């Protein structure tokens, strides 16, 4: 065995890369004179399922979890990815995702990196992810994490954990407002709006849509001085179809989403929403 000195930091780095145990990582580094690639090969030759070299694998399956706190004032939505739907549909994998979501909800972390640093079962979330990679042999990771704080926050999970939605409303949660928020979340899951309303659409998106409209109008032979006016009409239609509040309400297309909310409570509206889908 080599007499090279291996630091705790190097052992931890190899563990982070592979998901193998601390003692196994130390031995692998000692046997490999501190060479990380050789240490990974050593672990593999010893029959260890390591998490390394999986960053090039596509993780397009997985589950999305959406949760809110007991007061319905804060919520999170996250996507835990896997490579195959076989893993994604496994009850143990779904429970693992639920546990990570519970940690995210209780800790109120702001980023994925902060979430991975949280304690979980005697380790960190990041370490548990690596352990799971090593265990099942697939790339597993938290690929999306969003959060909302509002007077009322309503979570919704659609289609077997394939889509998760958070809706933030401007009035405190009541039974009626939570029901309305769930209806709106279902709308968001189905229609995938770009923004809450026209004021929330990024300027670059508006400019792009306007340029496309003008080009189409000119190509149709319309006079250039008319193009601006016609393009304004096309933009209005674009906003109506692609932003949330002006959309026809899926449960009653005789009114808009905005009208439905006002019918539940005067002044009720959406202040924020997040939609996360598997593979997005």
Structure notes:
It is a single chain. The protein is of the alpha+beta class and 280 residues long. Among the domains are: 8-44, Ubiquitin-associated (UBA) domain (Helicase, Ruva Protein, domain 3, Orthogonal Bundle), CATH 1.10.8; 61-196 and 264-277, Tetrahydropterin Synthase, Chain A, CATH 3.30.479. It is 46% helix and 21% strand. The chain has eleven helices and ten strands. It has helices spanning 8-18, 22-31, 36-45, 85-88, 91-107, 112-116, 125-136, 175-191, 203-219, 224-242, 257-264; strands at 61-68, 74-82, 119-120, 123-124, 141-149, 152-158, 163-169, 248-249, 252-256, 270-277. The protein has a three-stranded antiparallel β-sheet with strand order 1-2-5. The protein has a three-stranded antiparallel β-sheet with strand order 6-7-10, with helices on one face. Helix 1 packs across helix 2 (22-31), helix 2 (22-31) crosses helix 3 (36-45) and helix 8 (175-191) packs antiparallel against helix 11. It is elongated, with a radius of gyration of 25 Å. Mean pLDDT is 90; it is low at 52-56.
